[in-house]
Amino acid sequence: MAAGQQWVLVEMVQAFYEAPAYHLILEGILILWIVRLLFFSKTYKPHETYKLTEKEKEDLIEEWQPEPLVPPVSKDHPSLNYDVVTGPPSHKIIINGKECTNFASFNFLGLLDSDRVKDKALASLKKYGVGTCGPRGFYGTFDVHLELESRLAKFMRTEEAIIYSYGFATIASAIPAYSKRGDIIFVDEAACFSIQKGLQASRSFIKYFKHNDMEDLERLLKEQELEDQKNPRKARVTRKFIVVEGLYINTADVCPLPELVRLKYKYKVRIFLEESMSFGVLGEHGKGVTEHFGVNIDDIDLISANMENAVASIGGFCCGRSFVIDHQRLSGQGYCFSASLPPMLAAAAIEALSIMEEDPEIFSVLKRRCSQVHQALQGIPGLKLVGVPFSPALHLQLERSSGCRSSDLQLLRSIVDHCLDRHVALTVARYLEKEERFMPPPSIRVVVTVEQTDEDIQKAVSCIREAASIFLR
Amino acid sequence: MNVGTAHSEVNPNTRVMNSRGMWLSYTLSIGLLHLILLSIPFVSVPVVWTLTNMIHNLCMYLLLHTVKGTPFQTPDQGKARLLTHWEQMDYGVQFTASRKFLTVTPIVLYLLTSFYTKYDRVHFVVNTVSLLTVLIPKLPQLHGVRIFGINKY
Lengths: 473, 153
Description:
heterodimer; A: alpha/beta; Aspartate Aminotransferase, domain 2; four-stranded mixed beta sheet; B: mainly alpha
């Protein structure tokens, strides 16, 4: 046996001596390669950043001028002088000690002060306490959350809904959960700040189209289609989305949803609809802009809204098909890594939904009031009204801008102060000047609620007219 | 699977080859493959060695240089979506220990194979081509390079 094995080995060694030269040379090169790898190679990162010479480093250090940690800011900067509200921001709001009629808070359906909602919230407070002390995955899911999710899904007639504990974080978490690097998002220029933060977090390619301009959007989609045809393999792994708002908070008009759905099916993009201002406002039963236009809810891939406006609670929700919404339960950053919605706010939202379901008359009342206010605010000399007649949050912009944003803002602020002195609460629309992508022009935001009476509206309109005639000569 | 939470590693794919026992299991699995191929009757020893070399190199090419991205979602919004496992290893740092190990093993296997096939010409051609498909993508000059756009997206 041993002799047989030895015989094979001798044959092998003999073959080695008779091996062809090219083969042995190749093996020699490979062994040298191994030696080089093991002993003569250093780890380094490719595409290393440009290495600075010592002199360049010294120059840069010389030129650097330290900036103050807190930049100097003038004493009358608006963010340093804010109006203090004592008590709830209901129909009569107490600002700086003065009781005013509220034309500034987004309490469209008057549910903030509703006794039913308050009772349910108090009962929930007594049962659950105040906070949840945990995210949804870590003993923070209560039965009220599940109930609110199923009620919202049933209300919007979608398969599933998911609750976020902070309205701003809703769309800002939803967009990066689906859209990653290399994907393309077509978004309206007038998108609100939370959408912009979501877009920034998604690291995708953002293409802005002019506000409500479907031809511009179609042009962008056509360009993308041409590129896709040139490179079909890339197109197969690129996801495309359109992000629009139902009622835009910055311009108070509505997106052309049927047109968008037609473009969606023509160019194969997905629609994300942000309905913060239109949920509980538009449509016969308050179901939002889809009901307003009669569009099938299954055509919209994701509807996101915050419950901080009409529903008068805190937080936000997304609704859509189960396949879509379930993904956010693990990938929605605001869902997984924030404490869940306090149960009393969830109970308040459930009660608000019940009120909305039981009494769909309030939506037509709101619509009537909106058109009433829209009518009344027309033709104020010096101010132009921006917004559709059924939008509950309208903007009054200066007809002639002075060219400088801060002086425009001061002018508008003086109008607002004048109205405040006469017990009408209005607000100047505020933006983070350095952070917004497309700054909307300065404006006063007038909010319509169902609780305002005809006298309130007339008084407010006359105050604004008076202020405009005084300040806008 | 939301990955960056329990440990702060953004992309665990980068550390797989450095994990405990990975090198040993890799070597043992090559040995196991060889044993299984040796158990096939009527196949001679040189053919078995060439088969081991080829199957090892094929699997290495498919797993390290073809499959892209991660099987889980990473918190960096898909930075590694178009990168192969070799390119993801150690976040793209070249000549780390795992990379050197994975470059040396196919070469050692090739040397053994050429010894056991008695330097036959046909076996030489087959094994050398197979080795080249595995060695060339590992060069640092070919980091992120997709020839003729193959496997780009």
